[in-house]
Amino acid sequence: MLTMAQTVNDLHRITTSQLDTPPRLLLGPGPSNAHPRVLQAMSNRQVGHLDPAFIALMNEVQELLRYAWQTDNKLTIPVSGTGSAAMEAAVANSVEPGDTIVIGVNGYFGERLCDMAGRYGGNVVRLEKAWGDVFTIDELRSAVSQHRPAVLALVHAETSTGARQPLEGVSDLCREFDCLLLVDTVTSLGGVPLFVDAWGIDIAYSGSQKALSCPPGIAPLTFGPRAVDKLNNRASGVPNWYLDLTMVSKYWGSERTYHHTAPINMNYGLREALRLVAEEGLEARWARHRNSAEMLWDGLADIGLTCHVPLETRLPTLTTVRIPEGVDGKAVARTLLTDYNIEIAAGLGQLGGKVWRVGLMGFNSRPENVITLLGALERVLNG
Ligand SMILES: *Cc1c(COP(=O)(O)O)cnc(C)c1O
After folding, report:
1. Is there a smaller number of Cβ atoms within 10 Å at the N or the C end of the chain?
2. Secondary structure of 246-297 in HEC code, one letter for each residue
3. Is pTM, for the whole model, over 0.85?
4. In the chain, what are the domain boundaries?
């Protein structure tokens, strides 16, 4: 018999049941429900992360990402982590200590960019607007001409406010003043018209769990030639080992040098999510998102509710709905979840207590989901 000086403590050895998750309809700011084909793809058996079969899959993921983003950028990869990891990779690799970075702050994710850029030694210039507003090209021009930043960072789709930042023309400005254009496309990729190359975006990142309908855990990132030049000419190394693109790009490039083990099954999932984007086609996908959103907006108006963001800059993927006077917004969201299995979210920051956030992203952007939500919301409000 095996004798040990130390006995095993069973205090934490709990007995739990096999996992059985409730059938939620995820209509909040993310995650959205994964497409069933994505979940199925993720359950494929693993291969090694340098297996020829996996290398072929990596190439396919990169090529399909280029389609989804409308870019030819060679350095287009999925980062191992959620959207925030790709955000941090974008910042860590583009901002050097002392670099000025102008950041559009009109919501929660602009704030997060400021936090990250500051941690990497950037001289952060906050360009502020009320939550729900967007920046005009004149406002961006005056900030860039005044501060002469190395990087201008904007959030294309502010998931905290439901506003879409127009990007047409911004890159001309960035080229005129020789700065990089960095854009958060987490809630726009695969749901909202977006042309990385035609709009001159130098750096973009996204997430898998929003309009791509893949679970969270893998996050697209693309660096264009101007951004790669800046990266290759840094005076100091990238101060984040895990997200250092000078090393990560050698794994995703032709060298295939081991850096860290890619999350194999997340890549299976992302591949399937991107295959779904390519199958449907971007124009059809953008139109589907637009159509479901318009159906939602019309239905909300029918039950007396108003949207926070004006129609011209309202996102089809995320709608902020004003909570009527006297209504307990949190209680409504809780009842939707417990009685109807529907998740929506409360507002954050400046919009805390003022709005609900409703996402219609990817696989979830369908008329039946709009009808289900509107019906449930009307019943809950009429209590
Ligand atoms: C969700 C989101 C992120 C962060 O993604 P995580 O997956 O939560 O890490 C960043 N930017 C925007 C605009 C988002 O909506």
Report:
1. N
2. HHHHHHHCCCCCCCCCCCHHHHHHHHHHHHHHHHHCHHHHHHHHHHHHHHHH
3. yes
4. 25-31+282-381, 36-278
